[in-house]
């Protein structure tokens, strides 16, 4: 099979690796519009489950990824002058540049052609049996046929900025700072022995009130001052782009009615996005690559394989998409939780994915959650009730109706 993959991010590169491992006779080219070695973003975060899948599917690249990753096993939350630490699942961070370097080297070693600084026009696609649109949330291939794909973009409320820092955090770090214009907060995690990612978010009125909509270099100096207590006075670094800044964005949730058109199929952020606060974007994109490779391996009928890929991934995404939606809403309603005692606030920060939490008074939810940790019956009741409350809120039907 001849495959043209448009986009040299993690999903496109890993798909090319999987397809070459399945059948070395596949003719695979990855087309990337940017120069080799240039990438946006700082670190990629992932969890042990993904690493296990990488080891099962391509041990060689998995060993390199694990070798160049850093780890943490706890979370820390700073609220005003209070600090709370809690143990958690093992997390991993790796520099996005290093991650792409590892995948590109592995793809080349397997015989994949990588063509950098090569932009593919949507109306002039390469001749191939399969064209994979792995060109991100702004996918030109998807946009060209947006009506067919049924593309929808739902804007979020809060502005955010993606920064780096030379402060190396020892755990996944949350920090909430109260200003005269409202709360501003960050998520920080290490991705190497020298640097960390620091994502900063706030409500729109806080953003404008602090002057971040007008600040030079996107306000990195002001932000570094606000978060100096967790940065140990280290600077924040914007995305390299000439002026040293980084763009403030508003997260947009992207969905598509269908993921394929003829021999063109969407992969990763071109197909779907989930809010960054659950730290799953790269994992979900790689899982798309797993599913597409599996579907192509198990059946020579391309339309059937693409339909199976879409069906399987849509089902698998229901839980993380729900978690991401509720996580984003938790931060958008931060004042509901921020004045709780620190241990309660941190516990509900960890429960922000729950569909039940928005409908139960926070302190009551905290007590229920503690009790549920001891009673299996109550855990089952929480899992049963949450989706029904969401459905009732959206449709007006009683929560008890099936």
Keyword list:
25% strand, alpha/beta, nine-stranded mixed β-sheet, 40% helix, 15 strands, six-stranded mixed β-sheet, disordered C terminus, 402 residues
Would you kindly provide a written description of the structure presented here, covering whatever features stand out?
The protein is an alpha/beta fold and 402 residues long. Helices cover 40% and strands 25% of the residues. It has helices at 10-22, 48-57, 59-67, 96-109, 140-144, 146-149, 204-209, 220-226, 228-231, 281-298, 302-332, 342-350, 362-372, 376-395; strands at 2-6, 27-32, 43-47, 70-79, 82-95, 113-116, 130-133, 152-165, 172-179, 182-190, 196-202, 236-237, 249-255, 260-261, 264-266.
Compile the SSE list and pairings.
Blueprint: E1 2-6, H1 10-22, E2 27-32, E3 43-47, H2 48-57, H3 59-67, E4 70-79, E5 82-95, H4 96-109, E6 113-116, E7 130-133, H5 140-144, H6 146-149, E8 152-165, E9 172-179, E10 182-190, E11 196-202, H7 204-209, H8 220-226, H9 228-231, E12 236-237, E13 249-255, E14 260-261, E15 264-266, H10 281-298, H11 302-332, H12 342-350, H13 362-372, H14 376-395
Parallel strand pairs: 1-2, 1-7, 2-6, 4-9, 7-15
Antiparallel strand pairs: 3-5, 4-5, 8-11, 8-12, 8-13, 9-10, 10-11, 14-15
Helix pairs in contact: 1-4, 1-10, 2-3, 3-4, 10-11, 13-14
């Amino acid at each position: 099979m001849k495959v043209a993959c448009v986009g040299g991010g993690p999903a496109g590169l890993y798909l090319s690796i999987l397809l070459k491992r399945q059948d070395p006779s596949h003719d695979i080219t990855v087309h990337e519009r940017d120069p080799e070695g240039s990438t946006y973003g700082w670190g990629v975060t992932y969890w042990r489950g993904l690493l296990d899948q990488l080891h099962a599917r391509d041990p060689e690249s998995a060993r390199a990824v694990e070798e160049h990753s850093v780890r943490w096993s706890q979370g820390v939350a700073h609220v005003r002058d209070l600090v709370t630490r809690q143990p958690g699942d093992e997390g991993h961070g790796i520099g996005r540049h290093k991650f792409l370097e590892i995948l590109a080297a592995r793809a080349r070693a397997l015989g994949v052609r990588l063509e950098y600084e090569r932009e593919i026009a949507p109306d002039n696609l390469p001749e191939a049996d399969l064209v994979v649109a792995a060109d991100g949330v702004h996918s030109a291939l998807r946009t060209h046929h947006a009506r067919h794909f049924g593309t929808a973009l739902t804007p979020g409320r809060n502005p955010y900025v993606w920064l780096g820092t030379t402060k190396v955090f020892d755990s996944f770090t949350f920090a909430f700072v109260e200003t005269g214009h409202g709360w501003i907060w960050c998520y920080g995690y290490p991705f190497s022995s020298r640097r960390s990612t620091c994502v900063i978010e706030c409500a729109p009125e806080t953003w404008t009130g602090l002057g971040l909509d007008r600040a030079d270099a996107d306000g990195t100096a002001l932000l570094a001052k606000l978060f100096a207590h967790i940065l140990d006075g280290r600077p924040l670094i914007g995305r390299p782009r000439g002026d040293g800044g980084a763009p403030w964005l508003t997260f947009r949730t992207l969905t598509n009615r269908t993921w394929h058109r003829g021999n063109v199929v969407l992969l990763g952020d071109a197909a779907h996005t989930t809010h960054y606060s659950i730290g799953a974007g790269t994992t979900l994109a790689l899982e798309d690559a797993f599913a597409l490779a599996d579907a192509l391996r198990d059946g020579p009928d391309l339309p059937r394989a693409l339909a199976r890929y879409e069906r399987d991934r849509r089902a698998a995404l229901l839980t993380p998409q729900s978690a991401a939606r509720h996580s984003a809403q938790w931060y958008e309603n931060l004042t509901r939780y921020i004045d709780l005692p620190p241990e309660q606030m941190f516990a509900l920060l960890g429960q922000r994915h729950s569909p039940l939490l928005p409908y139960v008074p926070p302190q009551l939810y905290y007590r229920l959650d503690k009790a549920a940790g001891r009673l299996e019956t109550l855990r089952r009741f929480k899992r049963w009730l949450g989706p029904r409350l969401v459905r009732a809120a959206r449709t007006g039907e009683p929560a008890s109706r099936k």
